[in-house]
Structure formats: structure tokens, C-alpha cells
Amino acid sequence: MPLLPARSGKVPRDAVHHPLFARCYARVSVRAETRLGMGQVRERLLRGLSGRVIEIGAGNGLNFGHYPGDVSEVVAIEPERRLRRLAVEAALRAEVPVDVVPGAAEALPVKSEGFDAAVVSLVLCSVRDVPRALGELRRVLRPGGEVRFFEHGRGGGRVMTFSQRALDRTLWPALSGGCHLSREPVRALRDAGFELGPYRRLLMPEQGPVLPASYCVLGTAWRPEASA
Ligand SMILES: C[S@@+](CC[C@H](N)C(=O)[O-])C[C@H]1O[C@@H](n2cnc3c(N)ncnc32)[C@H](O)[C@@H]1O
């Protein structure tokens, strides 16, 4: 789906512009698939999905190879230009149809209630406005539709949570493409009106040093059947 041209006739600036981060993420994330076990986590994240799926902030498309064959279509939203280009390449290799679309979580360029499931992995840390992004997610899911999430956030003892908050207020977001360390994805999903399904907390990497970004959660939530 192309971006609408601005009134001037020029293509509008990308909603997210982090060229240096994008370059680094494209390299580091591929290594993390095997070295940190991220490939296995993605497999668990997407297992059993079916129907039409929307993936928010798809990055370089590392989830695409893990979608099960029962998924009829993935619409993958990615605002960052370099990552989007890599996602398009990954989409060509995927076994399910994947359409990579520019756009931001806070204003999804798709119709309401058009999806059976939504996927967010390592994205809620980076969106500018979490409640708005989750409101959009709710809008585009059909009633009873499922959210699969793999996110990192606040965790550890007092020293760790203090460090996470301090980093969020200083260097971290600028260095890491707008990422925040001390967000609480499970609480945010609940506050946005999703019903929480099973979720489990895990450290990434599962072995080795515990870092401020290690505190992860992998799980499922639903848009309630009767929600507006
Ligand atoms: C750490 S990367 C994760 C990429 C991918 N989901 C994965 O699992 O590897 C964060 C991604 O969120 C995207 N992002 C940042 N702000 C966003 C926004 N407002 N809406 C949608 N995606 C956003 C970035 O461009 C980037 O692709």
C-alpha cells in the first residue's frame, strides 16, 4: 500500500527515521537468531496462528519465516525505510504471503476489524504512544482476535529498575531507535482493554549476563468478543 503523496507532491518523511539504529539492528538481530536463541522464541511466539495477521513494526522481517502455513496473509507494518526494504526481501522468501506496508502503530493504514490476529515483537518499547498504538491494534482486530506479544520491559530488583529508568531518561532511546527499557507491556495491554491469556516471563539471553533489556515477556492477549 503506497504512502499518499503530500500536497506538495513530495513523498512524506518516514514516520520513524533511525538510519544508524536500523543498520545495527539489521546485523545484530540476525546473529541473535541463533546465538541468543531468538529464532526459537519467534517460533513459540507464532505457533498455532491462522487466518489474516497484522504484524506491527516488523523490522527486517525475522518473524516471517516462522509463520505457520495456516496463516493466509500477513500485513507487516514497518515505518523505517532501511528495515522495510529488508523486510520486503524477507517477505519474498517467506512461505506465507506477506505484504510489507509503510506506516506507524499509532495510525495503522488498514480497515477496522480486518484481522484474526496481531503480532508485536520488541516494538511496544519503541512506539511513541503506547496507549494509542494499542487502541489501533484493538481497532484492527476482529472481536475475539488474538494478540501475540514478545516484549521486553521493566524487571529485576530496585537497582535494575532504577538503572532502566535512568537510561530511559538519558542515553538509551537516542542510541537504540527510540527504545525504552522500563515500560510494562502486560499492564499496557490490560489498560488498553485486552484480555490477558497465558504469558510467561523470560530472560534474554536465557543464559549469560542479565542486562537492562533482558526482562522479557512472551504471551497472548485477546480483544474481548463484546468490545466496542
Ligand atoms: C527492535 S525492532 C524489532 C523489529 C521486529 N519486530 C523484530 O521482532 O525483530 C523495533 C521495530 O519497531 C519499529 N517501530 C518503531 N516505532 C514504531 C512505530 N511508531 N510504529 C511501528 N513500528 C515502529 C522500528 O522501526 C523497528 O522495526
Automatic annotation (TrEMBL):
GO terms for biological process: methylation. Keywords: Methyltransferase, Transferase. Residues 55-147 form the Methyltransferase type domain. InterPro entries: Methyltransf_11 (IPR013216), SAM-dependent_MTases_sf (IPR029063), Thiol_S-MT (IPR052356). Gene3D superfamilies: Vaccinia Virus protein VP39. SUPFAM superfamilies: S-adenosyl-L-methionine-dependent methyltransferases. GO terms for molecular function: methyltransferase activity. Pfam families: Methyltransf_11. PANTHER family: METHYLTRANSFERASE LIKE 7A (PTHR45036:SF1), METHYLTRANSFERASE LIKE 7B (PTHR45036). This is Methyltransferase type 11. It comes from Streptomyces djakartensis. The lineage of its organism: Bacteria, Bacillati, Actinomycetota, Actinomycetes, Kitasatosporales.
